[in-house]
From TrEMBL:
Residues 21-44 are annotated as: Disordered. Pfam families: HTH_Tnp_Tc3_2. Coiled coil: none annotated. Residues 24-33 have a biased composition (Basic and acidic residues). One of its GO terms (biological process) is DNA transposition. One of its GO terms (molecular function) is DNA binding. InterPro entries: RNaseH_sf, Transposase_Tc1-like. This is Transposable element Tcb2 transposase. Signal peptide: none annotated. Residues 56-101 form the Transposase Tc1-like domain.
């Protein structure tokens, strides 16, 4: 598999080769990447993460985001409610169809509340 390099990368590498002693061969390698080269290994990054809180050294968010992305780590929000299953959807639809033709008098007998309450048992919801 042949790798294609941009013209600017080829030119830059040629300038480096011409400026060198000439005794060494100059090649473009696939592992040469654009941007600033890594200064630490992944193992060193893990050690830094363990020690950094005790050092009071500045930590840059861009570096943290980059390291998390390299480890395929990301953030997410916890679900507020569980997604509805097809069974739940079916039961809700049945409930609505059963009350489709209710009159205002029948609806006045229903208690509506914005508060959350549970008739059966405590569902171990954490209160903060």
């Amino acid at each position: 598999m042949q790798r294609h390099f941009s013209e600017s990368k080829k030119k830059k590498q040629l300038e480096i080769c011409v400026g060198s002693s000439g005794s060494e061969r100059c090649h473009l390698h696939e592992d040469q990447a654009s941007g600033h080269p890594r200064q630490t290994s992944r193992r060193e990054d893990r050690c830094i993460a363990q020690v950094a809180p005790s050092l009071e050294a500045p930590v840059f968010t861009r570096n943290i985001r980059r390291r998390l992305a390299e480890g395929h780590l990301g953030s997410w929000r916890a679900l507020r409610v569980l997604p509805l299953t097809p069974t739940h959807r079916g039961r809700r639809l049945e409930w609505c169809r059963a009350r489709r033709n209710w009159t205002a008098v029948e609806w006045n007998q229903v208690v509506f509340s914005e508060s959350r309450f549970n008739l059966s048992s405590d569902d171990n919801r954490v209160h903060v």
